[in-house]
Design goal:
mainly beta, Sulfite Oxidase, Chain A, domain 2, Immunoglobulin-like, 2 domains, five-stranded mixed beta sheet, five-stranded antiparallel beta sheet, 4 helices, globular
Length: 350
């Protein structure tokens, strides 16, 4: 494989690329060209000859690795869904930026076995090489954190390949952290340092951004915050597409569902949420998303309706109707030859 060239974007220029809507998600494995990009600090300039990954902090044997060192380690390939958390200040607004990819790299747990982590270390801080200004705030490094006990549980990887090719520069070459089952904001691109500590990172993207509010409790009467880590149970309908014309007869309503620990069931509504039917759901396969189908006998010749899908994971967690990052997805469609003057509008519609 050829090693990728430099990013096409100017160093430090923010990058946003969201090419796919749910009705575009026709392939099980998303082509690399369609992988979303959200880099608020832009892509850094990296010299592969001098690039290093440093592992330090609360470890007995600090370690520094070159790119060739990593390439010599046993390779692991994982197919997993990969989702953007969206605007960090809009926790209650769905974005539906989801892909399914084949990652290639090294199991993070295998690398960390060489450094002997202090038992008192609770968090792993991951440093990216991207830096600069974010909304007038100076950022030395993009930093995210992860609970140490989650490293093996989620199968975290040090990734240098996607879909069998080296990572594109915009997507983190030479190395990025990939945390299956966690929102993409935690899969730090242009990785250069892993640091172990007892407390959470004080970085801007861990203290100010990417924390969702939680309801008041006896211990926190004013409510608290929860880090945006694990991906919430979710599903989208791929076909029919938004505002499509549906002809009478048998209609295959299908889409994708995903959850960190697997989806147990999906229900579909073809009458704007009035009634729900159980869809056929393929078994969980590793950390990939799961396809669902519902054979809908459509007997309407005019008017409109809204299709909806609702996934439930193995622990009973279902998509809420509204007001959450993973709120139920709505697909307005119409019947007959006349396009309705308007379709239902709500926060769940793309």
């Amino acid at each position: 494989m050829k090693r990728p060239l430099s990013s096409k974007s100017p160093p430090g220029a923010p990058m946003r690329h969201f090419p796919l809507r749910p009705h575009h998600l026709l392939e099980r494995v998303t082509p690399v060209k369609d992988l979303f990009i959200l880099s608020p600090l832009g892509a850094p300039e990296i010299d592969l000859e001098t690039w290093r990954l440093t592992i330090d902090g609360m470890v007995e044997r600090p370690l520094t690795l070159t790119f060739d060192d990593i390439l010599r380690m046993p390779k692991r390939v994982v197919e997993a869904f990969h989702q953007c958390a969206g605007n960090p200040r809009q926790w209650n607004k769905p974005t539906r930026r989801i892909t399914n990819l084949v990652w290639g790299g090294v199991a993070l747990a295998d690398v960390l076995a060489r450094v002997n982590i202090d038992p008192k270390a609770r968090f792993l801080w991951s440093y990216g090489m991207d830096h600069g200004l974010y909304q007038d705030t100076a950022i030395d490094n993009y930093i995210k954190d992860l609970l140490v006990h989650e490293i093996s549980a989620c199968g975290a990887l040090l990734v240098y390949e996607v879909n069998g090719e080296f990572l594109p520069p915009e997507n983190g070459f030479p190395l990025r952290l990939v945390v299956p089952g966690y929102y993409a904001t935690n899969s730090v691109k242009w990785l250069c340092r892993l640091h172990f500590a007892e407390e959470r990172s004080k970085g801007y993207f861990t203290t100010v951004l990417y924390n969702d509010p939680t309801p008041p409790t006896a211990d926190e009467p004013n409510g608290g915050i929860r880090p945006v880590w694990e991906i919430a149970t979710e599903s989208v309908i791929v076909s029919p597409a938004q505002k499509a014309r549906v002809a009478p007869g048998m209609v295959d309503v299908w889409g994708w569902a995903w959850a960190r620990d697997g989806v147990e069931s999906v229900k579909v509504s073809t009458d704007s949420g009035g009634t729900w039917q159980s869809a056929d759901l393929e078994p969980q396969r590793g950390q990939s998303w799961q396809k669902f189908h519902l054979a809908w006998t459509c007997d309407r010749e005019d008017g409109q309706t809204v299709l909806m899908s609702c996934a439930t994971d193995r622990y009973g967690n279902s998509q809420p109707a509204t007001g959450a990052r993973n709120a139920i997805y709505s697909v307005p469609v119409f019947f007959g030859d006349r396009v309705p003057d308007s379709f239902p509008q709500n926060e769940n519609e793309i």
